[in-house]
Design goal:
Strand order of the largest sheet: 2-1-11
Number of helices: 15
Radius of gyration: 31 Å
Helix content: 40-55%
């Protein structure tokens, strides 16, 4: 309605007159169509782009490449075991009796499993730059971790440099949490050192351009006329021949099911097919470029995003190593340090730490694992760095009474 009344034009005229009076240099800014269906999402935390499309969570995830990358990272973080370890002298053991262990491995809250909780938190941190969870107090410390919508949480740094979090629930008054009441998972990149910058913000231009490119392709498919060729006649076409051709096209060639059929020409007509144009190739190249551009922001290898023509074959193991080293490792550190700072006490941090078991992603074939464990365990005359029970634990197998001594020290048995 405001658009129809010339609201934007009136505002621009007023700004121009003001700038002329005060000799102010006009500033560039983005506009949003007030009739757009994406306006409510934009007002709830979307980002403007030079492409003319507001980038919202819904519009960004409609991009197949972007969704694949975000879903891959979030689900991978969600499925990996996140353990709490304790150092006891020279040994390391799982601290499965500590309350934090239950939060990480058994039940973070009453409505989410560990996989769902970690996937949700990781997804929020990826898209919004921040993921928050309220530490519900209990008799023995933290009873549960309740995720909060990052769009409703705003960090506030006081004059004394104390950090607090203002939370606006859907109903009720605003509430302020102290820093020690919130688990705050930040994205690695931050503009102010307090809040992380999510992909919706840093990749807004690429996502906006990708959205416009996809819309242009969809509009061309919806409204464009695709002519496969031209019918040439040496003279004028009779009225009856024209009617026959029209009827033939409507009956046999309209619709996707009839694509590729041949025309029966009338009165000595020649058929000249059309090939694909440079404009068609340019449109396909632009869409592919935008897919590559969006993928660069996430760090996921191209073949894992399902648009690389290269056949990797046995190189899939190297892709897993690439994914862990250059994409997931920063997030591992973010999770582990956040858990240590927010969920463990000063005394706990002296001997305890959280760690992802990324080895679950790097397991090769059964043959590769067998060769690795054979070298790790060793044998008579060949020292190893594992005892058999450690290798069995890696394979989720029960320990054996004889498995706590090094294999290379055990006497060979005679068959």
């Amino acid at each position: 309605m405001l658009d129809e009344l010339g609201f934007h034009a009136a505002i621009q005229r007023a700004r121009t007159a003001r700038d002329r009076r005060h000799d102010v240099v006009p500033q560039a800014y983005s506009t949003v169509n007030l009739k757009s269906e994406a306006l409510p999402d934009y007002l709830r935390g979307g980002y403007a782009s030079a492409a003319g499309r507001p980038v919202t969570e819904q519009s960004a995830l409609s991009n197949a490449t972007f969704f694949r990358a975000v879903n891959l990272i979030a689900s991978t973080i969600g499925m990996l075991p996140l353990n709490l370890h304790r150092r006891v002298g020279d040994k390391i053991e799982k601290a499965d009796k500590h309350p934090v262990w239950k939060l990480l491995r058994v039940r973070p809250n009453q409505w989410q499993t560990p996989f769902q909780f970690k996937s949700y938190m990781q997804g929020r941190a990826l898209l919004r730059g921040n993921a928050y969870a309220y530490k519900v107090p209990g008799v023995r410390g933290i009873q549960a971790l309740a995720p909060l919508d990052p769009a409703r949480v705003k960090p506030a740094l006081g004059d004394d440099f104390s950090l607090a979090y203002d939370y606006q629930p859907k109903t009720g008054a605003k509430r302020r949490f102290k820093a020690d009441e919130i688990l705050h998972l930040r994205a690695p990149w931050s503009s102010d050192g307090i809040s992380g910058d999510g992909l919706l913000k840093v990749a807004a231009e690429a996502l906006g351009l990708a959205q416009v490119t996809d819309e242009a392709a969809a509009r061309l498919l919806r409204n464009g006329a695709y002519v496969g060729g031209v019918l040439k006649h040496p003279k004028s076409l009779s009225e009856q021949a024209a009617l026959n051709l029209r009827s033939q096209f409507e009956d046999r060639f309209v619709g996707a099911d009839n694509a590729g059929r041949w025309v029966v020409a009338e009165e000595g007509m020649d058929v000249t097919p059309f090939g694909s144009t440079g404009r068609d190739a340019e449109g396909l190249a632009q869409r592919k470029h935008q897919a590559e551009e969006v993928s660069r922001y996430t760090g996921v290898p191209r073949p894992l995003l399902m648009f690389d023509e290269t056949s990797w074959g046995s190189g899939i193991e190297q892709l897993g190593l690439f994914l862990v080293t250059y994409c997931l490792l920063p997030w591992f550190n973010a999770w582990e340090e956040t858990i240590a700072a927010s969920l463990l006490s000063d005394a706990d941090r002296e001997t305890m730490y959280a760690k992802f078991n990324e080895a679950a992603l790097l397991r090769g074939s059964l043959k590769d694992q067998a060769e690795f464990f054979a070298k790790a365990i060793g044998g008579p005359g060949a020292g190893g760095f594992m005892v058999p029970n450690e290798a069995r634990d890696k394979m989720d197998m029960n320990p054996e009474p004889w498995g706590d001594s090094p294999a290379w020290m055990q006497e060979p048995t005679n068959a």
